[in-house]
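Input record, target 12 of the design panel.
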């Protein structure tokens, strides 16, 4: 029940109740399965997209390396970025952000990527680019809004640095998804 509410809440970027729901009930179950679903979809849809754009469809070979690369990228960004943000916040800026809450917000922010990846099946590069750009905007908005609520309370002076770090990380993810998989 809580998972369903969190997934729905993550689809709305300016959702005050999302932070309130995870503040008392943060989990890694949802983010883990969101990331795992995304990895599967990237491997599948990345190959379908490559097939649609291949000139010689008869001799097309599936790219099996999409799976380990997607695992590295999605789990790396999904679990690594909040951990690095937590380390920087904790030891550089002395902000007491809960690692579980931070990872939970970050993980649920990827919820929108599931339908976005389904849109990337459409065999036009402009469509996949616009869809991934929408993911970047939605994801950054969701992260900025929810992390701003935490940082504003605990360390208002460092909020722009932390938000810039989040934006830079998400932009890097966008570039990797766009140019490596789609």
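The sequence produced for target 12 reads:
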């Amino acid at each position: 029940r809580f998972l369903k509410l969190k997934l729905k809440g993550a689809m709305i970027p300016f959702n005050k109740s999302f932070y309130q729901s995870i503040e008392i009930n943060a989990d890694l179950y949802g983010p883990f399965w969101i990331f795992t679903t995304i990895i599967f979809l990237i491997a599948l849809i990345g190959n379908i997209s490559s097939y649609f754009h291949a000139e010689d469809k008869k001799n097309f070979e599936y790219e099996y390396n999409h799976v380990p690369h997607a695992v590295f990228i999605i789990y790396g960004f999904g679990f690594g970025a909040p951990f690095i943000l937590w380390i920087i916040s904790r030891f550089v800026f002395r902000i007491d952000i809960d690692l579980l809450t931070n990872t939970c917000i970050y993980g649920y922010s990827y919820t929108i990527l599931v339908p976005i990846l389904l849109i990337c099946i459409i065999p036009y590069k402009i469509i996949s680019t616009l869809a991934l750009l929408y993911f970047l905007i939605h994801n950054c908005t969701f992260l900025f809004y929810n992390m701003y609520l935490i940082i504003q309370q605990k360390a208002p002076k460092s909020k722009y640095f932390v938000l810039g770090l989040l934006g830079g990380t998400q932009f890097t993810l966008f570039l990797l998804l766009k140019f490596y998989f789609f």
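The helical segments are 2-10, 16-25, 29-53, 66-91, 99-108, 113-119, 125-154, 159-181.
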